[in-house]
Amino acid sequence: MKKVDVIAFYARLAEANPHPETELESGNVYQLLVAVVLSAQATDAGVNKATRTLFDTVKTPAEMIALGIEGLKQHIRTIGLFNTKAKNVVALSQQLVERHGGAVPADRDALEALPGVGRKTANVVMNVAFAAETFAVDTHIFRVGNRTGLARGKTPLAVELALDRATPQPFRLHAHHWLILHGRYVCKARKPECWRCIVRDLCAYKPKTPAPAGADVVPQT
């Protein structure tokens, strides 16, 4: 995608949603970290449903340790891979207490050293909690980057690095959220809803999905 088209692409997403936010619910940085860890191979809505009662009582790593693995499982058993996730969340909580004084570090390497925390999770926490210009590539962003031509790559890391190169200011801070929301609600996996896409004329995807009968077609800028 040409630079002028990249700028137009982000500008339209920004105009439609000037202040995008994560859809994961949390009350502090620690709860955000836990929510992101739990969201792997799960929906944000499903995680929010499971964590609402959990986060009413567990707000710190020490409180999570006190709850324990079996106690945590009772809250998150509706989430995929809950057994492994429960072990990781309690283990990372222990490391936060032992190595970081109970605080979540604002450093990607330190975050990735925690059990159950990969590069994507670290990037989300860095971006949402610490306003770092990171690009957390999940399945939605991987698809949007490749399908639109904005940032192509065969791996999530390749797409992340391509986004880092292609995304200019002032769009870098919120790029991750604009792209994930666009992929979640418009540029869907099986059938992208091209007729209501505000950037379809800039997109490299050729077999544009036609509008269903009676659908409102979003005009292009």
Notes on the protein architecture:
The chain is an all-alpha fold and 221 residues long. The protein folds into two domains: 3-19 and 135-202, Endonuclease Iii, domain 2 (Orthogonal Bundle), CATH 1.10.1670.10; 29-130, Hypothetical protein, domain 2 (Endonuclease III, domain 1, Orthogonal Bundle). The protein contains ten helices and no strands. Helix 2 (29-38) runs antiparallel to helix 7. The chain is elongated and about 55 Å long. The mean pLDDT is 95.
Short synopsis of the structure:
By secondary structure, this protein is mostly helical. It is built from 10 helices and no strands.
Task: Chart the SSEs and their pairings.
Blueprint: H1 3-16, H2 29-38, H3 44-57, H4 61-76, H5 82-100, H6 108-112, H7 119-130, H8 139-148, H9 156-166, H10 175-185
Number of domains: 2
Number of beta strands: 0
* Beta-strand percent range: under 5%
In DSSP terms (H or I, runs of 4 or more residues), the helix count works out at: 10
SS content category:
mainly alpha
Any guess at the CATH architecture of the largest domain?
Orthogonal Bundle
- Termini gap: 17 Å
